[in-house]
């Protein structure tokens, strides 16, 4: 009896086929994101997020490079009341570290590179509280590193994505593949993350990351 094909299964992901014969086929990823209107859109994460080292990784695409806008915040009370928050200041990513040493109540780590409007970038920020060091990576490359000496805050407030507070500083643009880990990425993790979109860095060989380190993951592949 002849074999009957019961079902034709389509490829899980499309490919850009190399017709030169060298088999250097390109992988096409979703290219999808969640759009934030800059007026009142934001997401909420866990209502209590414990104090720990952290890696924030997400694809960002801004509509406007003007003003302060929240990307990932730890607090409804502003940057100075959270032990870390991630902002966007006139086209540059900024990590805020809250501290109790007087003055402004926080320090900021601002990226060197101003990012263009309507362009996708992979942004990865790490905060290591044991070494008191924050780093900003853009498209897999270290853009800024800063070490502080102040005593940082240890709050466990809720996570907001796309705003600093529920009433102000909303993100204007698109976000995709947002991840928060309770462990700092190494350069190898960051390189793997950038070269393998829509995959998790723990799939890379030799990483110290485990599934338990991944605390939040919003693919945001909406349209």
Estimate the mean pLDDT confidence. 83
Task: Work out the radius of gyration.
Answer: 19 Å
Cα(first) to Cα(last) distance is 46 Å
Task: Count all strands and give the number.
Answer: 17
Q: Estimate what percentage of residues fall within beta strands.
A: 35-45%
Structural class: mainly beta
Describe this structure in words.
With 223 residues, the protein is mainly beta. The chain has 1 helix and 17 strands. Strands 3, 5, 10, 11, 12, 16 and 17 form a 7-stranded antiparallel β-sheet that branches. Strands 4-13-6-7-8-9 form a 6-stranded antiparallel β-sheet, with no helix packed on it.
Structural descriptors:
globular, 223 residues, 7-stranded antiparallel β-sheet, 17 strands, 1 helix, 6-stranded antiparallel β-sheet, disordered N terminus, mainly beta
Write the layout of secondary structure elements.
Layout: E1 15-16, E2 26-27, E3 34-37, E4 43-44, E5 54-62, E6 68-73, E7 85-89, E8 92-98, E9 106-110, E10 121-128, E11 133-138, E12 141-147, E13 160-161, E14 163-165, E15 168-170, E16 172-181, H1 187-195, E17 214-218
